[in-house]
User: What shape does this take?
Amino acid sequence: MTNSSTKYIFVTGGVTSSLGKGIVSASLGKLLVERGHSVTIQKLDPYINVDPGTMNPYEHGECYVTDDGAETDLDLGHYERFLNHSTSQANNVTTGRIYQTVIEKERKGDYLGKTVQIIPHITDEIKRRIQILEEKKDFDFIITEIGGTVGDIEALPYIEAVRQLKWELDNNAIFIHLTLVPFLAAAAELKTKPTQHSVKTLLEAGIQPDILVCRTEHAINEKIKHKIAKFCNVEKDAVIQSIDAKTIYEVPILMQKEGLDKIVLKKLNTKCNKTPNLLKWKKFLNGLQNPKKEITIGLVGKYVSLQDAYKSISESIIHAGAKKCCKINVEWIDSEGVSMKNLSDKLNHLNGLIVAPGFGDRGIDGKILAIKFVRENNIPFLGICLGMQTAVIEFSRNVIGLKNANSTEMDSKTKHPVIDLMNEQKGLKNKGGTMRLGAYECKLKLKTNIYNAYKKTNISERHRHRYEFNNSYLEKLEKNGLIASGINQKNNLVEAVEIPNHKWFVGVQFHPEYKSTVDKPHPLFCGFVEACINNK
Ligand code: GLN
Assistant: This one.
């Protein structure tokens, strides 16, 4: 049921992809939250995969995991980092999921013999998924970002669904459309025609945008705003400039200056006298933009040519750096390019090293070499998921002397399976959505580096893996100096390891990066960055 007080904001994009719809949505959400409203943001993805969990990061960038174990679009990471509130499965909808539901219903006979069609059955399911968020909590605003670009064939059912919804919601809904205003260097002019055409495409689908957010490299003057307003049937105040920013964290401030939140409230007939209080946000920006120190951290992974693949990790580093007023240069190190020969050149100057999560054996040897180097040279180390697992493999091989110790993911016949498939994973055939996913509790050991970072013993972190630390090797590893510093007590899983006899060497089976936000930079990243600063 629709709660009449909830207002819906639909965000579409035109002209090109990558205009920053996710960041603009997150920034608007932040401004509304700081005015005292409750807000959630949802992403509709027009692809046919049920979720991005099975996609290669080169296709899609990082797969972001929520507390409830949903594998989602990386924009949800931005929503959480900006709004400092958790999203869930309901915040990400894909065409695959929509069709799956409709087809399952059809098989059950729920449509009572009717012909099942895109309109109304697919569009009804889209509308249901948009409004589902309202059933969970009484939000003042639900911002729904529609992925892709208007005019795309695959986005059509979504556009039609939100067109219908606007009328069903008694005008408690508005449309924000993002476009590009390109600068033609030869003519030395900003061009509005692509925006006009993009709005025309929306109009053909029956949607009149209420607000236009125009992405641009150069400031858009009043004359151009007038022109866009006149040709696109919007008020001049509803033409919002979105100029390229040095960091995504400037965007809420820029949107506030342009009055995006004000015009949204006006269009939705919502009175709000409180001005957004962005003091904390500005303090964070100040730490980010006026650093007092500088360090360099290496990040070893196999998708380093596409940094979106490690989005949450790089944002977590930014958050921790801003908190410590420290500029952090990240050197992206391709694990396949690491060899004995170049090891020292690549790593010796670093203040610290992160080894990234991953799947499969490509690049594993480079990760193991890099971990050996930082372990032996007392360089701070943070291993995340596969990074933790490779740290255990490295220690077993090179400190304990367990020749060919490995994870059964890399070598199913290894004599020393120090990392092994979890029991509940054995026998699973389907790849989609079947990992150990989402939030699990972990108890930290006192007097460890990880405990010093969190400053508490009971934590909850998000997971995404199939393999685990093999407890039959625990005693041997601990005797030799790699201890289990975090345990899931329910099923006795080792969730964190560390080497007490090292400056700062921590490996975690979970993904701390999914929970770092601007308001709350993640304690583990802060602890690691501090160790790196001290390792100048
Ligand atoms: N491939 C490993 C596993 O499935 C690690 C996964 C990860 O790093 N997210 O356990």
The longest helix spans residues 118-136. The first strand starts at residue 7 and ends at 13. The chain has a mean pLDDT of 95.
